[in-house]
Write a structure and sequence with these properties.
This protein is α+β, with helices and mostly antiparallel strands and about 400 residues long. About 65% of the residues lie in helices and about 10% in strands. It has helices spanning about 10-35, 40-60, 65, 70-90, 95-105, 110-130, 135-220, 225-250, 265-280, 295-320, 360-370, 395-400, and strands at about 285-290, 320-330, 335-340, 375-380, 385-395. The protein has a 5-stranded mixed beta sheet, covered by helices on one side. Helix 10 packs antiparallel against helix 11 (about 360-370). The protein starts with 9 loop residues before the first helix and ends in a 6-residue tail after the last helix. The model is unreliable at about 1-5 and about 395-405 (pLDDT under 50).
Length: about 400
């Protein structure tokens, strides 16, 4: 009924109404028995009981009583004063002490509530003994036992309420934590998918468009002196555009790369070397060592994309004349080596990532290798070429197949 009291629930509202009815019923009982027994001062008993009932009934309807502990204590003191007057007039008022215990324990703070209950017990015992003109221990048992029950019930309810509130807060925290976790997982998924898309676009469409651009530049340089060479370059550019269109369509549909459909990884790498040699001024050769073992699609896609990116870097930046691509099956792992005889580079002065100039290839290779638990080693020697080596541990197909589709 005040700001410090627990919030009312349907159950506590029902208990509160039962308490109200009990108080009013006991007051009516005291007034009725005074009339039925034709006791002296029956009129005063009725008037006092009615006054006490009106004061009690007014409390829950007063806004200040429900909001202020001081106002609630003042109202409770007024009810107690009316009860003491009624107790002086009628011994039946002793029964009203029982619901008063609950009011005091509910509205007053800890020690003050216990002190008020003790005073009410003493007043009930003294009032009843005065009406009986004698005192015996049995007279103290009823009020004391009622007070003990009230204290136990209220304290038990408060303990249950605190436990319920603690559980409610835990559930709220759990709900918030689960929402935060879901949001974090969603964000991580979005970032992972964004990273995957960036790698796929770089290793397919971007490299393909770069190849088309280089072929068209070669065709432009061949004109007008060698139109037959220009036509060949244009035809190769057209074929590169067709291949990349197929890559884009399969990429959108999240299917296996066309170069891996209906063939093996070794055959796809050999075709990649042949296509690179035909389209650019470089001789790319493929070598296979060891006994080929079945690989999860995720492994095949990663190794093919790394080889595509490495050869694209060689064509664009290395000024190489030859490139050797070797796929090795070495028992518990598979390795891919790409070695060229170009100008190499200084790893300490790598270009920064730039949407216009590129620079995403090495980062994409490292990310692909890391995702599959492998290692990537790059050994550039300025003026003498570059060697790139990838090693992936061979694991059962079931361990990597869920991630197979790019």
């Amino acid at each position: 009924m005040n700001s410090a009291a627990p919030a009312l629930t349907p159950t506590t509202r029902t208990l509160a109404w039962c308490l109200h009815l009990l108080v009013l019923g006991l007051l009516a009982l005291a007034a009725g028995r005074a009339v039925a027994d034709d006791r002296p001062h029956a009129g005063w008993v009725i008037a006092t009981a009615a006054t006490c009932g009106l004061v009690y009934a007014a409390g829950p309807t007063l806004p200040r009583v429900s909001r202020s502990r001081r106002a609630a204590a003042l109202w409770l003191a007024t009810v107690g004063a009316c009860w003491l007057v009624l107790l002086a007039l009628s011994p039946d008022a002793v029964w009203v002490a029982f619901p008063l215990y609950f009011l005091q324990l509910h509205l007053l703070p800890g020690r003050a509530a216990l002190a008020a209950v003790a005073a009410t017990v003493a007043a009930a015992i003294a009032g009843f003994a005065a009406h009986q003109h004698s005192f015996s221990p049995a007279m103290a048992i009823g009020p004391a036992l009622g007070a003990a029950v009230a204290v136990a019930v209220v304290r038990g309810y408060q303990a249950l309420y605190r436990e319920s509130e603690h559980r409610r807060r835990l559930i709220e925290e759990l709900t918030v934590t689960r929402a935060d976790l879901a949001a974090a997982q969603h964000t991580a998924g979005v970032l992972a998918e964004r990273d995957r898309l960036a790698r796929e676009i770089h290793d397919t469409l971007a490299q393909g468009l770069t190849s088309v651009q280089l072929l068209l530049r070669a065709a432009e340089r061949a004109l007008p002196h060698t139109p037959e060479n220009a036509a060949r370059y244009v035809d190769q550019a057209r074929q590169a555009a067709v291949d990349n269109l197929a890559e884009a369509r399969r990429f959108v549909a999240a299917l296996t790369p066309p170069t891996l459909e209906g063939t093996t990884l070794a055959a796809a790498l050999e075709r990649l070397c042949s296509t690179t040699s035909a389209r650019h001024r470089i001789t790319a050769r493929f070598h296979l060592t060891g006994d080929p073992a079945p690989l999860a699609t995720a492994y095949e896609v990663a190794l093919l994309r790394i080889a595509q990116s490495a050869l694209a870097n060689t064509v664009q930046h290395a000024e190489a004349t030859t490139a050797e691509v070797t796929l090795s099956y070495l028992g518990d792992h598979v390795a891919l080596d790409v070695v060229d005889d170009g100008c190499g580079f200084d790893p300490a002065v790598l270009p920064a990532l730039d949407p216009e100039a590129g620079g995403f290839g090495l980062a994409a290779m490292r990310a692909r290798t890391r995702d599959l638990g492998g290692t990537l080693t790059i050994e550039p020697v300025p003026g003498h070429g570059t060697a790139l080596a990838v090693q992936l541990p061979l694991t059962p197909l079931s361990d990597t197949e869920p991630e197979a589709r790019p």
